[in-house]
């Protein structure tokens, strides 16, 4: 029987900023771009995102929002930080929200409409 991960409590966002808190990094001959954290307790960790989605409607929070879920892979962790901790997951989740928001704004400015893209 598969165990469901508990839904984490909402947290106050850390409002990460590109070039202040994280940068994009690439490795020659690799087919993905990763992120490197450059500030805070997780500074120097390199990771990449995998699948991104939302919890089912049945797990909607009282405020009507659906918790976001995502996979990630640690590429480098020289400081041996706990990358399974809720603090770390919240932090990279905040970065993911910023990246998605920036992409939506960019696409909107370029005339791309995402309104019905996920139906």
Name the descriptors:
single chain, 119 residues, alpha+beta, four-stranded antiparallel beta sheet, 24% strand, globular
Question: Could you explain the architecture of this structure?
Answer:
The protein is α+β, with helices and mostly antiparallel strands and 119 residues long. It has one domain (22-109). Helices cover 20% and strands 24% of the residues. The chain contains 1 helix and 4 strands, in the order ββββα. A hairpin with a 6-residue loop joins strand 1 (22-26) and strand 2 (33-37). The longest helix is centred in the C-terminal third of the chain and has 24 residues, at 86-109. The chain is globular, with a radius of gyration of 16 Å. The mean pLDDT is 84.
Low-confidence stretches: none
With strands numbered from the N-terminus, the spatial order across the biggest sheet is 1-2-3-4
Question: How many individual helices?
Answer: 1
Distance, first to last CA = 30 Å
The portion of residues assigned to helices is 10-25%
* Overall shape: globular
Tell me the structural class. Answer: alpha+beta
Pattern of helices and strands: EEEEH
Largest β sheet strand count, sense and barrel closure = 4 strands, antiparallel
Strand-residue proportion: 15-25%
Compute the number of strand runs: 4
> How many structural domains can be distinguished in the coordinates?
1
What is the radius of gyration?
16 Å
């Amino acid at each position: 029987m598969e165990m469901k991960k508990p839904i984490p409590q909402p947290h106050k966002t850390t409002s990460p900023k590109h070039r202040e808190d994280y940068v994009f990094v690439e490795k020659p001959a690799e087919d993905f771009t990763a992120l490197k954290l450059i500030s805070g307790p997780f500074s120097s960790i390199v990771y990449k995102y995998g699948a991104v989605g939302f919890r089912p409607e049945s797990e909607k929070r009282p405020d009507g929002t659906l918790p976001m879920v995502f996979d990630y892979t640690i590429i480098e962790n020289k400081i041996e930080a706990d990358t399974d901790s809720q603090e770390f997951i919240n932090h990279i989740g905040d970065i993911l929200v910023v990246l998605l928001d920036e992409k939506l704004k960019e696409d909107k400015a370029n005339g791309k409409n995402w309104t019905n893209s996920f139906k």
